[in-house]
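Hi P.,

Sorry for the delay on this. The queue was packed all week, but I finally got your sequence through. Input first:
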Amino acid sequence: MKKLTKRSWAEPYKMKMVELLKMTTRPQRVKAIKEAGFNTFLLKSDDVYIDLLTDSGTSAMSDRQWAGMMMGDESYAGSRNFYHLESAIQKYYGYKYIIPAHQGRGAENILSKILIKKGDVIPGNMYFTTTRLHQELAGGKFVDIIIDEAHDPNNEFPFKGNVDLEKLDKIVKKYGAKKIPYISIATNVNMAGGQPISMKNLKDLRAYTKKLGIRIIHDMTRVAENAYFIQQREKGYQTKTIKEIVFEICSYTDGATMSAKKDALVNIGGFMATNEWDVYEEARNLVVVYEGLHTYGGLAGRDMEAMAIGIEESVNDHHQRARVGQVEYLGHKMEEYGIPIVKPIGGHGIFVDAKAFLPHLTQDEFPAQALAAELFIDSGVRTMERGIVSAGRKANGENYYPKLELVRFTIPRRVYTQAHMDVIAESTAAVYARRDKIKGLKMIYEPKYLRFFQARFGQL
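Then the structure:
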């Protein structure tokens, strides 16, 4: 009899309601992607079968969250739901002062306007699109200080989100500490493939910045997923709970921005947090200008209530095991088919290496964009590009050429089944089998900012 070596996991929930999906034909999908200018962001959701465009605002809320929405206090000022949200953030994350926002980029806008002045430099562990843009619009310049391993999709270092302290030290010596308003630290680095930062690296970074009086600002969008990897991979944390690890991560930072549409399991919402009264006071003024009163920040009371409950659910060990476990299941299926993916498997999705998948296309032919379009044509699975299109242009108009040219298969939380993962992997394998026939693209329309959202392409 075969010895049982590893027990299977199962979702720690059951389904009470389902949404029927539209099934389409290949000719219908070809027509849809052409009308969308070969940009999956411009597809109509009704034409999509399995939607892996993003995990932002696409998660399924729990019965407790839906019940909480019925308790929405829609008072313009002083909603009870704000105080519940404030209490949840203080309890689970430890930050003192809270400013709600309609989503993460609203918080990034306010934070950048307060902390950044023209000529400042903001080091960080790999850029994120909206974060870097807000930093640039405020007059700052982002500088990448992530470890070199993060730029190599085949390197299996377990904490590819780590900061290279030598790179940071060179930046400090070049510009001076006064030119650095904060270090921008993301937990589970999105653009690197959902890769975590270790607790040791964060502690070392905190010790370094404390001597120089430099803040650490935490992009905590996927902090609970990062905590899961620390629990699984870092010595001394195997017996710690996700809740305890999340709180410790936050304790080494001075403030945060969060898109609650990811880890916190809501369809809309975010916040800015800080431990500094002066920063909070300025944010409390600016939020009225850009978002709404400081006790709602552009959100309905019901949305704040769902967020408060979602924060609590996000730090549940069983939830995170199933969430990351589903991503790992898809990643292992991809590996079985020989599909080149970013390793190790990350937290919120699988990132396919488009350079290795389509070696006959140059980066100027947008291989990741072309691959995302081809995947949709094959099966109706919607993914997204994370490469040269997402990277955008420098101030002088030249394209950034990131080392990573990826297609992101982002898994919404508590939405799809294991059978859906099988369909996704099999579709990708079918496209991989005919990869030599995939043509590159040319950009025929480019918006001024964040071009990956609205750019249009044509086939070469």
